[in-house]
Amino acid sequence: MPEYKLVNFDCKGRAEMTRMIFAAAGVKYEDCRLARQKYEELKASGKLPFGQLPVLEVDGEILPQSMVWFAPTESFEVAKADVIAESLGHLFDKAIDWHFEENEETKQKLYKELFEKSIPRTLENLDKILKSCDGKYFVGNKLTYADIIFFSVLKIIQEFKENDELNDGSILLDKHMALKELYSTVSNNPGINKWLSERPLTKY
To answer: Can you state which reaction this protein catalyses (predicted)?
Structure first.
């Protein structure tokens, strides 16, 4: 059995998607969380692809984060899952830009763009994809990394929103019952549910 080591800062971020995939798969791994100084040392060593975190080590070899677990088996389904994951990745990047923006005027503009345009547009598209299948999973008839990434990204954005002074109290998925059901399905996965109850508390 390979030895896995997920390296990131002490936060959720993009690494949380991989942590949830590990949790759902029941795969043991080392959850390595670096302080800024340790990251700078690792970056200076030249061992980080693109100089960024998170990275996944497999038997000591550094790789991009892996979606090997819960991957669809058919090439078309893999492509479909990748499109969904990429769309959610773009949404996550926009949420990070808004959440960590220090200029208040710019932050308000980013908030409006994210919650009035980007999120509604993305959820509408995802809702159509989900309903075009059997309405339970994005791809095929079982859980894939597309579903887990969807859950992880939406959960983090909702947490960001609830802690922001501009929060209007709304729930992101209230208008999309099929997506809300999928969110609940992933949340109730035994491995993910256990991870959520035991994971370290972090500010973001």
So the answer is: RX + glutathione = an S-substituted glutathione + a halide anion + H(+)
Listed residue (60, 163, 62) closest to 155, CA to CA: 163
Cβ burial of 42 (10 Å; 0-12, 13-18, 19+) is: middle
Q: How confident is the prediction for the chain on average, in pLDDT?
A: 89
Neighbours of 193 (CB within 10 A): 14
DSSP state of 33: E
**CATH for 4-64 (3.30.1330.50, 3.40.30.10, 3.30.360.10, 3.10.20.310):** 3.40.30.10
pLDDT score of 160 more than 60: yes
Query: What is this structure's pTM?
Result: 0.86
CATH of 76-188, one of 1.10.357.10, 3.30.9.10, 2.60.40.10, 1.20.1050.10: 1.20.1050.10
Exposure pattern of 68-86 as b/e (b: 16+ CB <10 Å)?
Answer: ebbbbeeeebbebbbebbe
Reported as a pLDDT band with limits 50, 70 and 90, residue 48 is: confident
pLDDT at res. 94: 96
Q: Rounded mean pLDDT of 106-131?
A: 95
